Amino acid sequence: MGKKELHLFRGATDLRISLIFKLTIATCLILFVFMLFFAYINITAIKTMLLEEAISDADKLSETIIKTTHYEMLEDNRKRAYEMMQEVGTLQGVDHIRMINKSGKITFSTEMDEIGRYLDKKEANCNMCHADNEPKVHASTMNRSRIFFNKRGKQVLGMAKAIYNEDGCYLSACHSHSPEQRTLGVLDVIVSLDNMNMLIGNYRNKIVFLTVLLLISVSLTIIFSTHRMVNRPLKSLLTQTKRLSQGDLDALLQNKSSDEMGELSDAFNQMTTSLKSARMEANEWGKNLEAKVSERTREIKQMQTQLIRSEKLVSLGRLVAGITHEINNPLQGILMFANLTSKSPKLDPALKSDMDVIINETNRCANIVKGLLDFSRESIPQKKPASLNNIIDATLALVGRQSSFHNIDIIRDYQQDLPLIPVDENQLQQVFINLLLNAGQSMLAGGSIHIKTYTDNEEHVCLKIVDTGAGISEEDLGKIFDPFFTTKNDKGTGLGLSVSFGIIERHDGKIEVQSKVNEGTTVTIKLPLFPQGSETLAAGSDEK
Asked: pLDDT tens, 236-249?
């Protein structure tokens, strides 16, 4: 294996590794994002569930403490009630318990340093009853709970539960309360959330472990599958490419799979077969190249001759029309006076034969003038449905090979769904030849011609020819359609635009010219569309 082939093989190997790597990374990233989202929702749901359970447990513990100490409080046996709370406070998960009277004073706490301290009504455990500066009798479980960090920096859950003034309380003889007093105080139970946080952390670690394990499994599966289903067929394609680069067009791939790689192999084999056919055709064409070049040269010369003849005929027709029109008027006068003189009784009979000669010769001149007029008279357009795009392409095929167009760029901007229009293709081609020749002759140093076809509000099919030539002055712009007017000095006849104007006018169209000196010229031609149903009628008449 040479250095070049070895370099290609290494480059292809790097490409295969890069494809596997990109596919694996992309899949893992997508999977990671979805799993991260799923894990977030899952952990959030579990955290909410565990928190609700912790709040429920704390609320039940508060209710249990109140009911357990209810009898001791009725008997005003506070010492025993506090001892029972102290014992509950030693349970696992209970941070501490405290009693708060209606004045906000801590009357008991499992943390002795809090006893006797007054709480601000704005503190978290007072919000349930003093939110919005208005005391509340009842508050929901969620409103009575709060999460905060204690003085040891651990996260805890506080549950405040009101102690209400029941019948037994304000009827008791030992410490009766006023019946109007609805709340006697608050039992504040603070429990630790370490167990809940530990469960959430364990669950999060499992999610991370499963995510990593799944990503690794997916990556290995993608690498194996890609190597088996993509790399091997690509290696075969690479080998075939090397053989093609060395000119071996007889080898074909033997991939029998029915998936996309199989279709790619079939397409590659078709390409190899097409290349082989193209090579054989190129060899055959090369043998006949000289004959084809000669044939093309002869066709180009014929086209150039046809262009020259068309320009001469147009110029000659206009010239003859002008001359015959000017001669015809005096001839008619001569003929009229000769007839009058010949019939006059005062005419000398000896001169009668001479006058007959004059009359006969004058009639002969009139017939000659009539023949010239018939020759120069522009024919009526033989209109048939035609495509404006095809006509302009045919015109470009004629003029584009002239030497004056070798350094000019032709830019085609056609509307592909352009409708057919009733026109005489030969006459329109004559118009386009005149316009393109004028544009080419105005750009002797080179330039560009932009040809655009389009529809105008579904009423006209339009052609716009824009060149970057020398342009036309404002003084001459109004005279460009006059017969025999030209800006080319002795090189032009001044009939091309005049003939073009007449042809477009006989097609019920419009031709407009806009130009600025040293900036270029824009010619716009608008031709009417078919009336409704005229295409069908034209086609039917052709068939007949």
From this structure: 777 777 777 777 77
